[in-house]
Write a structure and sequence with these properties.
The chain is mainly alpha-helical. It has six helices and two strands. It has two domains: about 40 residues, no CATH class; about 170 residues, Multidrug efflux transporter AcrB transmembrane fold. It has a two-stranded antiparallel sheet with strand order 1-2.
Amino acid sequence: SVSGVAVRDGENAVTIQNSREHRVEIQLKSKGDQLMDVLRTKLGADVVPAEPLRVEWIGPKAGAQLRDAALKSILIALVFITAYIAFRFDLRFAPGAVIALIHDAVLSVGVLVLVQKELSLSTVAAVLTIVSYSVNDTVIVYDRVRENLGRMRGASFMKIINVSLSEMLSRTVLTSCTTIFSLMFFFVRGTGTLKDFSFTLIVGLILGTYSSIYVALPLTEYLDRKLFSKVVKKKPSKPIRKQGEAVI
């Protein structure tokens, strides 16, 4: 097998992945022009094909373009999500949802960096999926808050948030756990990009469940208390005319 070939550790460390259909994927940190010759010498010309099925080279310029495109995609998604939340609910709900999404995306990428996972197109797609899934969780909780705003007239906004969170906590946790258990199968049995994709989603779903409960709602209540309530108080009230008072 290819894994039996001795490879030196260092700058050009090799990652070997055995995939289906008797194909092997070999990843090198630098360009390996003489890789096929070494494999033919070690394994034999009858085992190694004359030409590789596919060769991809990603240099610093391509990596920078991939990074810029990923950041641009995430920022565009955040802008549209902010507009949707402000239109669907209220302007005071938008900052909490956006900061929760930024929290999920940044920490997911941070975990990938800590475990030294490759930031490829599949992981970028996973981060965008995390953003979509997280905003779905947040919207469901926000919708319950909006319903309770009509039911619990006269109650404080903090009490309404606490009641809404208690009503939706079990649903949010159970839904996320069910999805995570399904992704665990792909992470354990998958290889290559599928394994990285599922790992990124698992991390993001855990962070998204946490942020929907402990980031979005508390931040919404804080901004409502510190910012939006003061704006409402500063609005001038219309003068009330006494009964029988003439208007000139």
